[in-house]
Amino acid sequence: MEFLLALAGSRAQTGGMVGEAVLGDGGRCLDLEGLETLLRVLRDRSYRVIGPTIRDGAIVYDDVASLADLPRGWTDEQDGGTYRLRRRDDDALFGYAVGPHSWKQFLFPPHTLLTRIRRTEDGGLQVSDGGSDEAPQLAFLAARACDLHAIAVQDKVFLQRGAQDPTYATRRENAFIVAVNCGEPAGTCFCVSMGTGPRAEGGFDLALTEVLDGDGHRFVVEVGTEQGAEVLAGLPSKQARTADAEAADAVVASAAARMGRHMDTDGIKELLYRNYEHPRWDEVASRCLSCTNCTMVCPTCFCSTIEDTTDLTGQVAERSRVWDSCFTLDHSEMGGGHVRSSNRSRYRQWMTHKLATWIDQFDTSGCVGCGRCITWCPVGIDITEELQAIRQSDGG
After folding, report:
1. What pLDDT score was predicted for residue 396?
2. How many Cβ atoms from other residues are within 10 Å of residue 19's Cβ?
């Protein structure tokens, strides 16, 4: 998968591939105190620090004030339609895969107020731009490689195709990203198949690899931008040794070797294009609930709709953009009716768009192999299994 590091706006990302992304003297190491200091430095720079924390039986992204908020000693077990937390045998802070949240919710919020119209006392109308004063500075802690690729995909959607989306552009430009290389893939992960992980290769300000061994608990740091280098310079760190770099590489290599799923992407676009009428679409439609879970947890899906509401007094009216899904019946409604009125047509639209027509639109796949759509499908529909079933009986 092509990986864009482009960031439209005044602050361009300067990170490149591994090795090229490292600025300065070749890498540093942080201990737990250094990581705590990183959180404090980001808050002192007026960032809202968002990272992994445990809530409602899952590891989700929310405000993080200190290391105590992180899921120390916890991991997640995932399979089709299954997600469970369990205790690890160590005190890893980032020893999990990905949960139901992605960074999409912070860059492309589920609800965005576009316009508010208020009736004034003299009978006139006061119109305001709902998002004109929103410019949050967000610091993302523990972004995985697959999610960095997902952000790059949404950069193409919201920043690089025609008019820019102002809400996304502002939030994206102000974001500081601390990646954490994945050391614990889930049973539904297949980022290796998509070329999107488990190592972060760019799109970050700082990237950490968590290492726990006989030499202690530490984080090997790569720098991706000048801003990242500036922040790192203010932290208590040590020069990374060869042994540290080798240990970090081993963490990532181990994760790559333990992917829970595989997707054969060879000729994937053409495969799906010539199988619009494949009987597998009927089979999967018989199981699909059209619940929209897969699109809600997907880090790249970007469907939205516009809603108009008024308050009970009739004095205030608002127009908002809210997340939508191609699995809803109304999403394809046009003057003549619903274009995709069946489960079969809606699932085919989603999967074919994600893996094929997205490539024509944005020069990249819409799937980053995070596996969320498999984990959070109530009936465990597996996109890798569906593609393989079509491939096995493909007549082309």
Report:
1. 61
2. 9
User: What amino acid is encoded at 299 in this protein?
Assistant: P
DSSP state at residue 378: T
The three-state secondary structure class of 29 is strand
What is the residue-averaged pLDDT of the chain?
90
Q: What's the rounded Cα separation, in Å, for the pair 371 and 383?
A: 9
Decide if 140 contacts 177 (C-beta within 8 A).
yes
Residue 286 burial by Cβ neighbours in a 10 Å radius (0-12, 13-18, 19+) = exposed
Q: At what angle do helices 145-159 and 166-174 cross, to 10 degrees?
A: 140
Of 184, 201, 236, residue with least CA distance to 17: 201
- Which residues share a beta bridge with 192? none
Average pLDDT over residues 251-272: 96
Cβ contacts of residue 293 below 8 Å, gap of 6+? 373, 376, 377, 378
Reduced to 3 states (helix: H, G, I; strand: E, B; else coil), residue 46 is coil
3-state secondary structure of 181: coil
Confidence of residue 336 (pLDDT cuts 50, 70, 90): confident
Asked whether the beta carbons of 218 and 19 are under 8 A apart, the reply is: no
- Contact status, residue 76 vs residue 186, Cβ threshold 8 Å: yes
Q: Distance (Å, rounded) from C-alpha 47 to C-alpha 288?
A: 41
pLDDT tens digits along 131-183: 555 678 999 999 999 999 999 999 999 998 778 899 999 999 999 999 999 99
DSSP of 219-277 = EEEEE-SHHHHHHHHTS--EEPPHHHHHHHHHHHHHHHTT-S-----TTHHHHHHTTTT
